[in-house]
Amino acid sequence: MKQLAFDFAPPPPSTLDNFVPGRNAELLQNLQRLAAAGAGERFLYVWGAAGSGRTHLLRGAVAAARAGGANAAYVACVDNMRLPEDIVRLDCAAVDDVQHLDAEAQIALFNLYNELRERRGALLASGDAPPAQLELRQDLVTRLGWGLVYQVHALSDDEKAQALKHRAAARGFALADEVCAYLLTRTRRDMSSLLALLDGLDRYSLQVKRPVTIALVRELLQAEKAGTRIED
């Protein structure tokens, strides 16, 4: 009997390349253009429910802008926070969950917008609602609506299943419909977590020389929950 350790690898870094677009193809194209030396529209606001992928897109755009040589940063907004003072020196700023900003932070974001517009920088912002429905100061709401505004559409279960099957095929195995359904109902449903889990399942199935089945998935999820090792 030997013990085999199975670790759920953390999701890979968010990039524009590993974002599964679904109905968000136009938005993804505009973010790719923006990250390419600031081409195209320089101000974008995206909104959607938690788990829709807007954070992935903002982080991915920042990573792409940095790869192109821009001074870019991502900021996650929480209640009672202050925007970093040096954010005004960025070429590209991505400000996530702006609905959390208090009065002082809203003024800072308003000023940041004007500063980046003056310097031909770029601002990406996101929230849980379209600009007109945000409970923010009106002049900031107006600024957020001046550029491109997109709703980020979460993938349907069918689209997620197709993405999982495509990833499995790329790794050299077929993912059965019943395993897809099990993953979508018993695990975290965001694509980063689902794809990371699928990659881990593939590694483990090769290690134990067993196919990826519901039984194998269940075994691994139970082991992860218990924090134990699985014996072979």
Question: Mind explaining what this structure looks like?
Answer:
The protein has 232 residues and is α/β, with parallel strands linked by helices. It is 45% helix and 12% strand. It is built from eight helices and seven strands, in the order βαβαββαβαβααααβ. The protein has helices at residues 25-35, 54-67, 103-119, 138-144, 157-170, 177-186, 191-208, 214-226, and strands at residues 3-4, 43-47, 72-76, 92-96, 122-127, 148-151, 230-231. The strands form two sheets. A five-stranded parallel sheet has the order 3-4-5-2-6, with helices on both faces. Strands 1-7 form a two-stranded antiparallel ribbon. The relative contact order is 0.17.
* CATH topology title of the largest domain: Rossmann fold
Strand content: 5-15%
**Helix count, per DSSP?**
8
What is the average per-residue confidence, as pLDDT, rounded to a whole number? 89
Largest sheet: 5 strands, parallel
Q: What distance separates the N and C termini? A: 6 Å
Strand order of the largest sheet: 3-4-5-2-6
Number of strands: 7
Can you describe this structure in just a few lines?
The chain is of the alpha/beta class and 232 residues long. It has helices spanning 25-35, 54-67, 103-119, 138-144, 157-170, 177-186, 191-208, 214-226, and strands at residues 3-4, 43-47, 72-76, 92-96, 122-127, 148-151, 230-231.
